[in-house]
Amino acid sequence: MSISITRLAAVCTLSLSLVNLGAAGFAHAGVIATESLLPSARAEDLATVHAALDRSDVRQQFEKMGVAPDAVDARIANLTDQELHRLAQDLGHAPAAGDGLLAVLGIVFVVLIVLELTGVIDIFKKT
Amino acid sequence: MTAIRGAALATCLALAGCAAQPTMLESALPEGAQRSIELADTPFFAQKKMQCGPAALAEVLSASGVAVTPDALAPFVFVPKRGGSLQVEMEAAPRGHSRLSYRLAPALTAILAELGAHRPVLVLHNYSLPLLPRWHYAVVIGYDATTEKLVLRSGTTRRQTMSARQFVRFWDRAGRWAIVTLRPGELPATADRARYLESAAAFERVARPEDAARAFDAAVNRWPDEPLAWVGRGTARYAQRDLQGAARDYFEALRLDGSESGARNNLAMTLLELGCPHAARAQVETIAKDALADPLRAAVEDTRSQIAAHMTASISDDPESCRAVGR
User: Fold this and answer.
1) What is the ipTM of this complex?
2) Cβ(B142)–Cβ(A94) under 8 Å?
3) Which of residues 88-107 of B touch A (CB under 8 A)?
C-alpha cells in the first residue's frame, strides 16, 4: 500500500514537471528557468554545469542509503541544481536529524551526564 | 579555597550559559508584536523512531492547509541509512505539495514575527555538543515574553515548553536553521527580497504554472523594481500559455534592467511563438552571447536556432499584430 502511494506521488510530481515543459509546436529549451538567473546561480555556474552528473551521483547515493527506488526520482525532481550539487557533496555527512540515541561509553558518558545535569546539553530525554 | 570554589562556580555558570541575558525573548520581540502567542490549532503528529523530520514537516504543511501525514512524507524526506532527514530535502519536499519553503534569517526575531503571522516555524536543533551532535527537528508554535519561554511540537511531545536561552543554544549549534512553508502568493512576515526570490525560483521548478504565477505575483507587488520578479512571473505566464502576458512581464523586466539577458532570451522565445519571428530575432541579436555562461548561453543559442528555423525567406516582416505585443 505504502509503495503504491509512493509510486503515485512520484508519478504525479514527475508529470507535473513535464506539464511545465510540454506544449505543442516548439521545443522549450529556449526559455530559461528563473532559478538559473539568480545572482547565486550565476556565482556558482559549476552547480548548473554539473547538474546531470550530480543527479546520477545523488541517485546512486540515495539507493545505497536505502531510499526506495520509486521515490528517488520525485525527490531529485524537487531539488534545485544548487541543492543537488550540495547533496552530491555531502549526502553522507550533512546533519541527518532523526532521534538516534548516542552510543557512548565510559568517561565520555560521565562527561555527558555532567553536562546534562548542568543543562549544557539535553540528550537523554526521550523525544 | 573560596577562590577555587568561586572559579568552579564561574566555569559552571559560563558552561551552562547562565550569564546570558535574562530577557532574550523580550528583546527579540518584533515591533508591535503580542507578548504571547500560541498557535494551538497546529496539528500534532507524534514522531516514529528516527522520523522527527516527516513529523515536523507534516505539522507545518498541515498548518498551511496541506492534508498530509508523516507516513506519506517519509518516503520523500527520510534517508534510512542516515537514520534521519536532511535539511536540503526538508526544504525541497514542500514544493511537491504546492508550497514554497522559505528559509528565515538567522535571528530569533524572525521566528517570533512568523508566529505573529500565524505561521509555525520548523527549526533544527542540536541537543548535544558539536563533536557528538544529536540533531532534532521541532516546530515552534508559540512564545511568552513574560515567562521567556517558547512552545514547541517536538518528537512525541505535543506541547513542549523551553526557555528562550535553551532554545537559542540548541538552535545556535544547528546553524540557526529555520523554515516556514508558504501558500503560493503568500509572503513571509520577514520577507527578504533575495531570499524570497530564491524560494520562488526553486518552487517554479516543480510548481503548477498557476501556482508559480501566484508566487511571483506576490514578488512583483512587493518589489516592483525587481527585474527577476517580473521575469519569474513572465515565465509562469509563458508556461500557462498566456504569451501576451508573458511578453508584457519580460518587457517590464528589460525596462528595469536592459542587461537582463535571461529576460531578453525568454522574450524572444515568446515573440517567436506569437508568430513574430522578426521581432524575436531583433531581441535575441542584441544579446552579447559571448559574455554569457551556461546554461543561459546554451538557451540563447537554442533560441537563435529556433528563430532561424521559423524564418521564411519570402516574408520580410512580422504581421501587423506584432506591433501591439507588450503594450
Assistant:
1) 0.84
2) no
3) 88-89, 91-93, 95-96
